Amino acid sequence: MKIAFWSGEEKIGMTSSMAAAACVCSNVWDLKTVLLQSRNQKGDLYQKFDGSQCSCLGRRTRERLVTVRKGRMYYLMQPGYAKQEQYPEFFKKSMRRLILRAEKFADITFIDCGSGEDELAADILSSADVSVINISQGRQCLNLFFQKRHAFHGSVIYLVNQYQQNSICDKQYLNRLYRIPKEALAVIPDNQFFRYAGDNGKMERFILRYARCTNTDRQFYFMQELAHTVNMILYAGGFIKDMDKRHEGRISGCSL
Question: What is d(CA 62, CA 56) in angstroms, rounded to the nearest whole number?
Fold first, then answer.
């Protein structure tokens, strides 16, 4: 299954959200995951995890996987930054081959497509099983985004990063004003401890530490929403077949 993360805005925490979702998939759902970043952005996955270099994904020595958790979670070292207005066909074909190798290697491939209108990102999104469209709660940015026509392949999830519960633009507001169905809208709450973990290579440690938290823990709300987000993605991608099954509590105390 191929999951593409994209946003029309920069610096809204999309890479961290993708990394957190991958951690839940690998450590809670026991799925083998690989994270990639498109070459239309400067790679920073190495900042999220402690890791050790692994073998090559393919024959090309520069396509080196880094192990986050052996047998469960890996990310690909960024081969090089090359953002362009237009990309030659061989460049796009090279990215497609890389993604195909990752899909053969793992159960789920997460791809960070970067932000903004970009030919390479559009090419990746056109073949994704699930497109996770990352948005913020800024009304001006939301208006600009939803005024345009967007066509995404496969299932679509809208994900609010750094979500503020008390904002005027809460989930109900987004459902009502922008007509985003409840089943297509997920949030990952703003959380200073999560941000710190992501900035200091401790993303997986944070998820593991609080994966079994109860409703008395201060991280419960964050983990509950993260777990719900992952379940929505897995359901949209066809991994979870039964609507009722997606609400089983894979994370202790969390309503999935």
Answer: 7
Query: In the structure encoding, which two tokens stand for residue 124, read together?
Result: 């990746």
Helical H runs in the chain?
Answer: 14-27, 89-105, 119-125, 139-147, 171-177, 192-199, 203-210, 220-236
Size (the chain), residues: 256
Rounded-to-integer distance, Cα 158 and Cα 135, Å: 7
d(Cα 195, Cα 66) in Å, to the nearest integer? 22
Residue 175 · residue 181 · CB < 8 Å: yes
Report, as an integer, the average pLDDT of 63-90: 82
Tokens standing for residue 68: 């986050």
Position 43 pLDDT exceeds 80: no
Q: What is the pLDDT of residue 60?
A: 61
Residue position matching structure tokens 């519960």: 165
What tokens does 99 get? Answer: 């993604």
Q: How many CB atoms lie within 10 A of CB 12?
A: 21
